Every structure is written in C-alpha cells, then in structure tokens.
Amino acid sequence: MSRTMRILLENGLIVIGLLTFWPFVFGHRSMTYQLWMLLVLGLLAWLAVVRLRRVLTTIQTHKDQHETGGGYPPTYPGNN
Questions:
Q1: Where are the alpha helices (DSSP H) in the chain?
Q2: Cα separation of 8 and 5, whole Å?
Q3: What distance in Å separates the CA atoms of residue 17 and residue 48, rounded to the nearest whole number?
Q4: What is the mean pLDDT of residues 28-50?
Q5: Degrees to nearest 5, angle at CA 3 with 54 and 37
Q6: pTM of the predicted protein model
Q7: What three-state secondary structure class fits 19?
Q8: In which band, very low, low, confident or very high, does the pLDDT at 77 lie, cut at 50, 70 and 90?
Q9: Residue 71 pLDDT exceeds 60
Q10: Are 61 and 76 in contact (CB under 8 A)?
C-alpha cells in the first residue's frame, strides 16, 4: 500500500472514530453500539501506536543523519 493511501486510510479511521462517539453524546446506549464503540476504540489505539512508531522512527533517522553529517535536506522514511 502506498504511503499516501495509508495516510488517507488512517485519517479516514480517525474521522470514523470521531463520528462514532456522537450517538453516545445524544443518548444512544444499545449493546451493539457499545460493542462497535469498543471496536473503534481498539482501532484508534492501534492507530495511535502506528503513528507514534512512525514519529519515533523519523526522529531517530534525523538524529542519525545529523550525528553522521548526513546530507541536507534530511530525508525521512517515505520521503526518499
């Protein structure tokens, strides 16, 4: 999957996650809805871990290039 498609998919999951919690705000409390919210919460937690790893990898790559006198401008994963 290309980087652009992956980012669009992640952004779509965030939007779905935000929209999922609105029925709860308006008082909808069925069991299937609560299970759906639990699933979405798990997806959002997974997404947070994926994005955190990406940020940490980018930071480490930048530090490694800076310490070794890497070229300018620095290259980041997916920006080669």
A1: 3-20, 22-25, 31-67
A2: 5
A3: 12
A4: 94
A5: 70
A6: 0.72
A7: helix
A8: low
A9: no
A10: yes
